[in-house]
Prior knowledge:
The protein is an all-alpha fold. It has helices at about 5-40, 40-45, 55-80, 85-130, 135-145, 165-210. The protein is rod-shaped.
Amino acid sequence: MGKVQGGMKCVKYLLFIFNFIFWLVGSLVLAVGLWLRFDPDIVSLLNPEGAPETFFMGVYILIGAGGLMMLVGFFGCCGAVRESQCLLGSFFACLVIIFGAEIAAGVFGFLNKDKIIGEVQQFYKQSFEENTNSTVVLAYQEVLNCCGVSTSDPALCPGAKKDCNAAISEFFNDKLYIIGYVGIGIAGAMIIGMIFSMVLCCAIRNSRDVI
């Protein structure tokens, strides 16, 4: 079996280090996804029956991507150590698929950001109009420190600083920004991984052709 030499050895070890970091990033993405899914504040706001589920669609994609990244990172490490064209080619193909899925998820989140927030606001408004003292309404007011729908009502909750429409928008924008920043970082890492894997794969093939 031909072994890469010179500068390609450096690429080999860099690819191994990258894949280990990629595996760690996958763990982080999975952790962020699970945090967003099981965060007590979000659970208290969106778990009641009839609550909108659009937000969780993006979160489930994030959880799936994190798990897949951990698996791909493991195979990438094996491919780099064993100098296997098959594993490196599979690693590259998986990165392309994950990259495409991430772009799709990002577009989905960007196009549906206002829809997600609007659905939550509408859900709160309906609950508020049906019963101002319901469990759902009280959960929103407690978690978001808000009161009322479009204007804060000091008579209902004296300590509230803003209306719940504004509080909902601020709360979910913060969560969606977290997903966006994580996605941008992952995209950059995947591009580097694709370049390294193809360079090493070509070097392995050339070294075998020489032998």
